[in-house]
Automatic annotation (TrEMBL), chains A, B:
Superkingdom of origin: Bacteria
Protein name per its UniProtKB record: MarR family winged helix-turn-helix transcriptional regulator
Species per Swiss-Prot/TrEMBL record: Nocardioides ginsengisoli
Span of domain HTH marR-type: 17-147
PROSITE patterns: HTH_MARR_1, HTH_MARR_2
Length: 155, 155
DNA sequence: ACAGAAAGTTGCCGTCGTCAACCAATTCTC
DNA sequence: GAGAATTGGTTGACGACGGCAACTTTCTGT
């Protein structure tokens, strides 16, 4: 029956919503721990951005607005925070006088590497029993979910 | 080589972290839209709790502290908000004079049902191309992930 | 009966994102 | 090429939200 398929779909969506709700609350703690491991004064929200800058090379702040889908103002503040801590460097974009390019500083890279090493050593505490393939599949699903969320609400 | 396995595992973990970071930012908007659909003044955080009370029958506030892993105080405020809006009812627990049991009010149920129906009708806007099985698998992964996060940090 | 422990409430505070106003540099347009 | 619209970024005001701690009330254990 169509209704059954629809029903289970609906249930899956509801379950998904609940799990996401739990996630966004629990993850705060984990990110908090990890950010403190990188730098005592590093705020959780800034850690995620630092991590992204580290992965995706020099980029401008506005690029992160798109990725994280948050306000320019919020990005600006987090970036300032990261600069204050000496974790990233800001340099003018040679191709556009308005823009600035962000790079993780040497200290920032060292700190991130150290934390990554710690995490690798213990195969990440809590997820140790997840096979790499499942982790990848999970990350891929998350990405797809995020992409779906990225579609403008006014379709 | 072990190192390669470890490396890809580490990469998967980093990717996972980034995706989760994006998720927790984007999801805010979606939850925000949905909560407003239920009630104009319903705050996003309260919507998730309302939804949980609706699924998991009469329960006490402290039960949600465990589920969502947040402070008693935060729960108390959200619950008060939900009561102010007339979306849930609070009744003393007959088995424990300290506790109160929360139930979604008739109005609350009606509003949730209406929103659920809307969501079902359009097979949830953005996730329409996800088969139910994948959605379920995704939700299951999320649950497992959440469970892993739930393990106390001090192992 | 008395010392905890558990359920909630409340105030204070820090984090964080949005909105809007604003500046500077760039691009578009006639 | 001057003026308008656009884009990158900063800042301030504000609201949502959770953590912590103090406190009340109601069990529970011995």
């Amino acid at each position: 029956m169509t209704t059954e398929v629809v029903a289970s779909r609906s249930e899956a969506l509801t379950a998904l919503e609940t799990e996401v709700g739990v996630l966004i609350r629990r993850i705060r703690r984990v990110i908090g721990e990890r950010s403190r491991a990188v730098h005592e004064e590093l705020l959780p929200a800034s850690y995620l951005m630092l991590s992204y800058v580290n992965e995706s090379g020099p980029l401008r702040a506005s690029a992160m607005c798109a990725v994280f889908d948050i306000d320019k103002g919020a990005i600006s503040r987090q970036v300032q925070h990261l600069i204050d801590l000496g974790l990233i460097d800001r340099a003018p974009d040679p191709e556009d006088g308005r823009a600035t390019l962000l790079t993780v500083s040497a200290d920032g890279v060292a700190r991130l590497d150290r934390v990554a090493a710690e995490r690798r050593e213990q195969l990440d505490d809590r997820l140790a029993d997840w096979p790499a393939e499942e982790l990848q599949a999970f990350a891929a699903s998350l990405r797809r979910y995020n992409d779906a969320l990225g579609i403008p609400a006014d379709r």
